[in-house]
Each structure stands twice: as structure tokens, then as C-alpha cells.
Write a structure and sequence with these properties.
The protein has two helices and twelve strands, in the order αβββββββββαβββ. It has 199 residues and is of the alpha+beta class. β5 and β6 (118-121) form a beta hairpin. The longest helix has 28 residues, at 22-49.
Length: 199
């Protein structure tokens, strides 16, 4: 009569459950370093092409509200130039440590005129459905080469080119593309095309 024996599974790795060997710690350390390296590369890579800014104040109402966070495309003007209607973030010419956000209105070679509550480019009035109110002020500005004329959408509550002058194109950091915070306000920003205004 044959005796039966219960079969038992033996662990494939007899070292299982033993303390990690030095080579294991080395592998773990390399994995952590690789992860940190990738995180740093991604962080600087994203910051090289984009920026995030907080809107402070009401100069861009009703398009942008105080406290909203906006994503900026820093590559938008590497191959091209700002266009009329673009919402741009730039270093304030009178204080380079301060960044502002406004809308591009006048381009190099054009004359911007504000009169009787209307903004005109080379004598042709702009259709501006995005502004809060018609401007109370009047004036005329010739845009020289390498400069832009920018205004806030809240015309009568904005310190912009009508007060401090023209904006050097080199001061432009990038183009505002998305409101990403707070979540209920998430929105892709509309940039009005006024290209025909100067024709």
C-alpha cells in the first residue's frame, strides 16, 4: 500500500522575506533619482512654454474677474506678432517687476483715436462687444515701430496705454489662452479678430 504525501509549494526565492540587499537599495535609489529628474524636466519644460498668472483688479472686466487664474502661452509670439484683439500679459514698461494683462488694440504704423466713446483705428471704428462701458476719455496716438497700444476691457477703470503710453513688443510675455481657476469659471478665452479694421 502506497503512502500518500501532501505536496507543498516551495518558495522560488529562498531569500524572500529577508532584509533588502545593498543592490536592492541601490536600485530603489536610482528609481527615486530618475523620478525626481523627470519631475524637474517636466516642471521646467512646462514653464518654458507656459505661465500661470493671477488677475488682480477689475481692469479687464467683464472678460476677466479679480482673483481668476489664467494660463499663458509663452510660445505664441516666437514665430509671429501679437494681433489686434489678443489678450496679452506683459512686463509693465514703468516697472518691469510688475506684470499686467490687457488687450491689444493698436499695431505698429497705425493711429488709434478714442472719441465720443468709440475706439477707431486709422479712422475706422472698432466693434468691441467685450468692453464694460464706452470710454469717457478722448485722445489720439500714433503707434511707432516695435510698439503696441493696449487697453483694458473695463475702459474707465484701467491704467493702460491711454495713460502711460505705448507698450514695447519685447515686453510681451505671452498670450492668455484659458481661465483655469476657479473651476466654475473655466473658459477658453476668445480673441476677437479685428484684422480688417486698418483697411
Amino acid at each position: 500500500m502506497e503512502s500518500t504525501q501532501s505536496s507543498q509549494l516551495q518558495p522560488e526565492n529562498p531569500a524572500a522575506g529577508e532584509p533588502a540587499q545593498p543592490s536592492d537599495w541601490k536600485r530603489m535609489g536610482l528609481d527615486i533619482l530618475e523620478t525626481l529628474f523627470l519631475a524637474v524636466v517636466l516642471y521646467f519644460g512646462i514653464n518654458a512654454v507656459s505661465a500661470r498668472v493671477r488677475v488682480d483688479g477689475f481692469s479687464m472686466n467683464p472678460t476677466l474677474d479679480n482673483g481668476e487664474y489664467v494660463l499663458i502661452n509663452k510660445l505664441a509670439y516666437r514665430l509671429g506678432q501679437p494681433a489686434r484683439g489678443d489678450i496679452v500679459v506683459f512686463s509693465f514698461p514703468l516697472d518691469p517687476n510688475q506684470d499686467l494683462i490687457k488687450r491689444v488694440i493698436g499695431l505698429p504704423g497705425e493711429t488709434v483715436t478714442v472719441q465720443n466713446g468709440k475706439v477707431s483705428i486709422n479712422g475706422k471704428a472698432l466693434d468691441e462687444p467685450y468692453i464694460a462701458d464706452a470710454p469717457f476719455y478722448n485722445g489720439s496716438w500714433l503707434i511707432t515701430e516695435g510698439q503696441l497700444f493696449v487697453l483694458g476691457d473695463n475702459r474707465n477703470q484701467s491704467k493702460d496705454s491711454h495713460e502711460w503710453g505705448l507698450l514695447p513688443i519685447e515686453n510681451v510675455i505671452g498670450k492668455a489662452v484659458v481661465i483655469y481657476w476657479p473651476p466654475p469659471k473655466w473658459e477658453v478665452l476668445e480673441h476677437f479678430n479685428h484684422a480688417s479694421a486698418a483697411k
